Structure prediction request, 215 residues.
Amino acid sequence: MIFQRHDLVFADWKSIDTSVIKNEDFRNLIIQSKIPGIVRRDEKDVTDGENYYTENEKVFIGFVHPVTVQGRRLRFGSSIQGNKITKLISPYEVSNFEFEARTPSLKALTDIRQSYNVGVWGSASLEIVTEYPYTHDMSDLDLIVKNYQPDVLIELLSKCNELESSFGIKIDVEIYLKNGYGINLKEYVSESDTLLGKGLRDVILIKRKSVEAYL
Prediction:
């Protein structure tokens, strides 16, 4: 297996140190493997390599508690050896799951996936996979797309803008480039000379004239 940004992974989380987590419910959800780890970039322990992790290296992961505590979402970062991961769910697989569209972000996803092949990550993804109430009425919808031509990307943005107005939420779409970096769709249609590319190991600026070759 290879592991990319936004992938959800499962393992025997008892092998990681959760002693710093003060919230007992959060710690138990992790230890009992009831919530997945989210594959992420680690900003402190920078590693060299491609924009993915392999089974032969350390995979950095993040956990998120489904309920906000005093207006804040509890988060916990850790890592695990790749060969200890037992299950991987990609954002594109998540968007094909059946789910109850109980909040605006999930209703917007139901609409979008009827016409576009999108991946979903963030709170919507976590709710769909775990069935815990990660989303609320003002939750953003985070999507990712790949292998789309510019005209289709512009159509998708127009659709997202309509749904943002209808549901009163924010919809962010990340374009996955062939070099492994992700750029924001709204930035892509702007007139900026450079675009912020988010990778698994670093963040770079990409010249606009180079982006088309990586779509």
The chain has a mean pLDDT of 96. Helices lie at 24-31, 91-94, 104-112, 122-130, 150-167, 185-188, 208-211. The longest helix spans residues 150-167.
